[in-house]
Design goal:
Elements: H1 7-10, E1 13-15, E2 18-20, H2 28-34, E3 52-57, H3 70-74, E4 77-79, E5 89-92, E6 99-109, E7 114-120, E8 132-137, E9 143-147, E10 156-162, H4 170-173, E11 180-187, E12 201-206, H5 210-222, E13 229-235, H6 244-248, E14 257-262, E15 271-272, E16 276-280, H7 283-290, E17 298-303, H8 305-317, E18 325-329
Parallel strand pairs: 1-5, 12-13, 12-17, 13-14, 14-16, 17-18
Antiparallel strand pairs: 1-2, 3-4, 3-5, 6-7, 6-11, 7-10, 8-9, 8-11, 15-16
Bound molecules: flavin-adenine dinucleotide and FE2/S2 (inorganic) cluster.
The site of FE2/S2 (inorganic) cluster has 12 residues, from loops.
Length: about 350
């Protein structure tokens, strides 16, 4: 008679010849971390792709491959932080994304909190505007994801970095011209889709969520997009809104509009040009109020995670299809086990 295994035994995780026993409800990342196995991780929510590993044997749940490139899926890569450890898996560490050497070329202040960081474009580094890269400090390996605002045709990579005082990487990135970094990626699907040139595009984001949206806007213009493009940029106050002149320069076509929104502001800070408005309002409310036919448009939502999740849900409930909503919530580092 075949030996009957308990459900826990059935879900063993094997890595480098050692087998680890998960607890009920654990993810693969949690199981490995609890056993003292170090796996790089960051958001622990299936967004940043820092925790990629490869399955050599076993079935990967679809959720653990969401957002990965098709070629990664086929090769068995998966996100350990959102992979339930409820099945037997033999896995390996594997460098999924290519790594490139780069250098910080220049840093410019865009506002009191946001820096524009120019990186050297490594040869062979292919990406699409709006995707994100992992920027890795060479001296200690600290890494964070940042979205690319520049086009692939530019000879540099442009990032918009919000500086968090006391943060491990953002203050350093915005004050270390000449320093060496490594880049991994690109990742993410927040990219211009050239197949429907007449479909309206709605780009909405807060803070440095503007960076990928600018990338998408620039890519759409470069490929001759014919439908209207509306960009909503939200911030707490007027001093947190940045890049207004550069945004104005994107308004080559009178169908396109830009709306800058402040949560707090007074009459003197409100402004109205024919195609570029600055007003007080909540970004989610304004987008939902203005976008009367959600199924007709393609959406790009980036920045503060609560806003991205809220807007995505509301647009979906108003009829927008999920495959027409590209979302990159800028999650920060999740508390690490044992920290
Ligand atoms: C897909 C993706 C794309 C991203 N793209 C960008 C981008 O283009 N530009 C950009 O500036 N950032 C972006 N981020 C966020 C970025 O990766 C870092 O989280 C951020 O720069 C903080 O890193 P740090 O090392 O300075 O701070 P950490 O050392 O990680 O954190 C230090 C402290 O700073 C505070 N903090 C950190 N991040 C936030 C936050 N978002 N909101 C509130 N408090 C915070 C927290 O209190 C935290 O404990 C992105 C994140 C993701 C997941
Ligand atoms: S996707 Fe797993 S740590 Fe971010």
């Amino acid at each position: 008679m075949p030996e009957r295994k308990s459900s826990e035994e059935k879900s063993m995780i094997t890595l480098d010849g050692t087998t680890y026993q998960p607890k009920a409800g654990e993810s693969v990342l949690e199981c490995l971390s609890r056993h003292g196995v170090s796996v790089p991780s960051f958001c622990q929510s299936g967004v940043c792709q820092t925790c990629l590993m490869r399955a050599v044997e076993g079935d990967i749940p679809a959720r653990a491959q969401q957002g990965l490139k098709e070629s990664f899926k086929k090769r068995g890569f998966f996100l350990t932080c959102v992979c339930a450890a409820d099945r037997p898996l033999t896995i390996e560490r594997s460098q999924a994304a290519e790594r490139f050497s780069s250098r910080i070329l220049d840093v410019q202040a865009l506002s009191s909190r946001v820096s524009r960081v120019y990186l050297e474009r490594p040869s062979g580094f292919q990406f699409e505007a709006g995707q994100f890269v992992q920027v890795i400090r060479r001296e200690d390996g600290v890494r964070r994801p940042y979205s690319v605002a520049s086009l692939p045709s530019a000879d540099h990579i442009e990032l918009h970095v919000a500086v968090f005082p006391g943060g491990e990487l953002s203050p350093w990135l915005s004050s270390s011209v000449g320093a060496q970094v490594e880049l991994e990626g690109p990742f993410g699907e927040c990219v211009y889709v050239p197949v429907e040139p007449e479909r309206p595009l709605v780009l909405a984001g807060t803070g440095t969520g503007l960076a990928p949206l600018i990338g998408v806007f620039r890519a759409a213009l470069e490929s001759g997009h014919q439908g209207p493009i509306t960009l909503y940029h939200g911030a707490r106050s007027a001093s947190d809104l940045y890049f207004t002149d550069e945004l104005r320069s994107l308004l080559s076509n009178s169908q396109h509009r830009i709306i800058e929104l402040m949560l707090e502001g007074n009459e003197s800070e409100v402004d109205s040009e024919p195609l570029l408005e600055r007003r007080v309002g909540d970004l989610v409310d304004v987008v939902l109020e203005e976008q009367k036919a959600p199924p007709a448009a393609r959406y790009y939502l980036c920045g503060a995670p609560d806003l991205v999740h809220r807007l995505k849900k509301k647009l979906y409930l108003k009829g927008a299809s999920l495959d027409k909503i590209h979302a990159d919530p800028f999650l920060s580092r999740a508390p690490q086990a044992g920290a």
